[in-house]
Design brief:
globular, Aminopeptidase, 5 helices, 2 domains, alpha+beta, eight-stranded mixed β-sheet, 14 strands
Amino acid sequence: MQISLNIITPPDTCHYLADKESITECDLIIEMSSAEYEQRLLAGWRHFGRQVFRPRCENCNECKSLRIPVKDFKPNRSQSRNFKANQGRITLEIKEPFLSDEIMDLYDRFHTERSFSRDWPIKEDRDEFSFDSSFLDNPFPVEQWMYRENGKLCGVGYVDALKCGLSAIYFFHDPNLYSHGLGIWNVMTLINEAQRRGVPHVYMGYYVKGCQSLEYKAGFKPNEILSIKGKWIPYS
């Protein structure tokens, strides 16, 4: 593993809970293997591209790493309905990461809608450099999951395929297909694919109670969180 820079950010307004301040520790990685990153993931780190990070907030512990033991997962009624509705309608292609106009257009439309519906920061359209550094330029292999309905791209996810499980990095989808529940469908697909590959967990990133964009993660049960003592324990 080679690290070119380690920083701890100054306190800033939390992106998840507006009444909190956040501090982040970030390593910029030159070289890292999947096995090395797996150890970081198990200790509560995440990555976007070559940036490996974790929260270091002094007075808050609401960012909780959450994972789903796939062999024990039991879908609720809503998740079962989602699976039945989308099975056979939404197709999946798994590729190496690449960027196209089709992908960038979907990404821009998703973020524009979220800036209005969930008060996300407004970003510049066609920010290909940021997209590349977040999803395409990685120190180890990452999978690009592309969902289509009748040939039209409707969702894109980035996934780390590790021995400890599948780790969801990021997912964006067509905001005009809200009724399809594509976010739920993506998680259901991750769980099914983890079962098919014989890996034990799906890692969902950070769960933050009270954050509308992240609370859905705890709806996939049973699940586990990483405790402040560094142990994975049952949550809900």
